[in-house]
Structures are given as structure tokens and as C-alpha cells.
Fold this sequence. Notes:
Elements: E1 10-14, H1 19-30, E2 34-38, H2 46-52, E3 57-58, E4 72-75, H3 84-92, E5 96-98, H4 99-108, E6 112-117, H5 122-136, E7 146-153, E8 158-161, E9 167-172, E10 176-178, E11 181-184, E12 193-196, H6 210-221, E13 229-233, H7 237-242, E14 250-254, E15 261-269, E16 272-279, E17 282-289, H8 294-309, H9 314-322, E18 332-337, E19 340-345, H10 350-363, E20 369-373, H11 386-393, E21 398-401, H12 418-427, E22 431-434, H13 438-448, E23 454-458, H14 466-478, E24 482-483
Parallel strand pairs: 1-2, 1-4, 2-3, 4-5, 6-9, 6-12, 7-9, 12-13, 13-14, 14-15, 19-23, 20-21, 20-23, 21-22
Antiparallel strand pairs: 7-8, 10-11, 15-16, 16-17, 18-19, 18-24
Helix pairs in contact: 1-2, 5-8, 5-9, 8-9, 10-11, 11-12, 13-14
Amino acid sequence: MSETIKPTNHVHLIGICGSAMASLAGLLQLRGWRVTGSDKAAYPPMSDLLEQLHIPIMQPFSENNLEPHPDLVIVGNAISRGNPEVEYMLDQRIPFRSLAQVIQEVFLTGRESLVVAGTHGKTTTTSMLAWIYEMAARKQPERAPSFLIGGIAENFGSSFALRPTQPFILEGDEYDTAFFDKGPKFLHYFPDALILTHVEFDHADIYADLDAVKTAFKRLVNLVPRRGRIVVFDSSSNVTECVARAFCPVERYGFSRDSDWRIADLSIWDGRSHWRIERKGVPWLKVEMPVIGEHNVLNATAAAALAAGQGIPADAIQQALQSFRSVKRRLEVIAEIDGITLIDDFAHHPTAIRETLRALRLQYPGSRLWAVLEPRSNTLRRNVFERELTEAVALADEIILAAVYQASNLPAEQVLHPEHVVHALQNTGRSAHLLPDVASIVEHLGGHLRSGDVVAILSNGGFDDIYRKLPEHLRAIRGAVSTP
């Protein structure tokens, strides 16, 4: 890499609006390189981040975007052969790498790699761990973290940072790396310490079944050196299987009485989570956090356990969690209009949807809860979790499903049938509707929402700009000023 590209050279990212790609673009810019990128469509929050960084986004994909030739092209994992920029790059023999290769070669060499992996909770847990290290750095400057997160950490206002110190905290994604590197991205990160949150079947476009997913995580575990540590969720047989042959110490967190890091006396009140952490059966830390949901308490405990084991003082951990401000698109309130609360949450899997709706029940007791879901992730678009999805959204009082995103790109036998989900919900007495597009969803909500309602908008993508269109429609018809 050092012979291929040097500071001030031009780097171009194909698929720059992906959360990790946009973060990498920022890291490269901090290293002094000229960065450009392209994508088929730009949407917040990463488009906003790139605009703040003055990194141009070229739309749509075109050979012209690679003229004059950049010194290096980084190809995102959503980019396939047939993309005009990829074909031109290959024809012209422009040097190229994947995101994960660049991270490993440019940023991780000579640093302490701390990786957070798992089917759920990666982004939030990585953000918590980075904020814990940031708080510790106020007294111990050598603890200041570099990080790369698949979302905007609100405490930092960014998804990345680059410091001259040793710790580098990364979200370890199990999705494949690029069309020319079909292994998981996290296999490039060589963790010195690892958090493993959950292991479930996901990414149905690249993994055949749960066993294939577990194989990927087993390979990650096999990269942790003997001197390293692995912190894992205590109540998943899949996780237990994945770490069974680890060569380093494995520490467990969760609610079990024999956990190394046990959550005790959890309560939710005044919009905050309160609990104690017992370390190997001994009271260790009282925690208060302005983020709710049992899943977030687990995430925070995992981050605390890894940090403590790496020598971070307990008081820094306590202060960090007490001031943790979550992540963009994770239970994020995007508007409050005439008593109606609109919430954006990144939704990619039935388990995540279930935990989101459970948390909102705690946050807004007594409110009528709406779930507005776009089946967009490569797992939700398929019919592999129809029953689980039905059970998850049933936690809401009112359910709206949109049409499956780009259903025509999938084999017909694989596509989720949202009408099946809606019918199953209606058969149990739930109020559920299938509305094919955002225009009809916005119109329906405008006619049925009332003050006190909470609307969870669930999608892992742009959802045809519903995050702007719905608030604008509600303001127009209700004559209300919105916050924030």
C-alpha cells in the first residue's frame, strides 16, 4: 500500500455513501489524501457527513467519474461486476483495494485493534466503547481512541477519528468485503480483543444458513491471539459454540448468575436505565445511562467489560455511560409535531425490530405505538424470517408494511410476501396495513395519527425520503411547529 499511494494522492471510493465507506473517506482525508466518491443515490446521515467534509459525491456511477485516473480506487461491498466504474477500473488497470484491506494496511498496522462483532448491537456497542476510551483519555491521554463506526456516534458527532495513540476501535462487520474478496470484512482486522454480542442467521444474500454464519465468526475468534481477550454474551448457544475453541481467555456478560460480568437490579425510570454490574460475583459498578432498552444495557455492559479488562478505570466507564448519547438512526427522535413523536431506527433483522419496539414500550408507556416498516435489508427482503417478523412487529399497536425494496431483483421464490405478514397480524386482531409506497403511507398516517402517538420508522436505508416527507406533511395538515 505504501508504494501504491502516498499522502496527497487521489483516492476514489465507489459506493461512498455506505456507512463504513463514508467513515473511511473521512479517515483518508485526515491522512491528507484527496478523496472523491460516487454512488447511485445519497441519503442522510452519511451524505450529510460527506457534505460537511467537503468530499464530493458523484451521481450516478459513470466512467467519467474516474477521469483523470485516481491513484487508488476503493470498491464498496455493495458494488458488483457490471458497474461502469468497476469495468473501467479493471480495463484501465487502475490500482484498487477493498475497504477492509485499506483499514488493515493503512490504519491498523502497529496499533491495538479492538473489534466489536455480532449480528446485533455492533454500532451502538462500538460507540459506547469509543466514548469510554475518550473519557479515560481526559486523565490518560494515551487512551485517546481512533475509531471507525458504522453510524454517527452522537457523542462525537462523527463516525470516525484518527489519533496518534495505540487504541483503534472498530465495528467488525460479517458481511463480505468486495466482489474480489468474498470473506467477511472483520477477518482483515486481526483483533487484540473482541466483543461478540449475538450470532444469528442474517445476510441471507451471502450466507446459505446459520452454520455458514457461525463458521465466519469461528474464523474471527481464531484470529485473536493467546494474549488477547474475548467478551461474549452469556445466553446464546450460537455464541458459545463460536468461542468454544478460542486460544485466549473468554469472559461472559449478561444476566446469568455465573456470568463474569453480571447485570443485576435493572430498572428503567425517568427515561434512564439503572443497573449494577457484578464482576465475578462481586459488586463492581453502579451504572446510570440515558438510553433505555434491555439490548442497550447488554451493549453497555459488554463495552464496560472489555474496557475494564484493557485497564480502563471504573470511574471513566461510569462517567462515559452516564453521558452516552446513542447513535444516529438508533431510536433517534427526528421530529415531535403536535404531540406526535417520530422515531427513526435502523432495522435489518426481526430480532432488532423486536428489541426496538420493546424499548419504545418502556420509553413511552401508554402511548399508541406505530411500526412503519420497509423490508429493505437483504435478510428482510427474503421470506426466511416471515414468522419471526410477524411476531416482532406485533409488539406495536398499529403496523404498516411497505412493499419489499427492489423485489424484482430477487428470485420470485425467495421474496418476502408482506401481505402474508399483514394477514397473519389481522388474524390475531392487530391493525395492520400493506401500503406500497411512501406517498400512500404518508397520506394514511396523516389521516390517522393523533396527539400522543409514537411512530417508529424502521428501515436500513433511505425509505424514499420518508424521514423528510412525513414531518413536512404533518406540519402542513396540523399547522404545528416541530422539534427538534
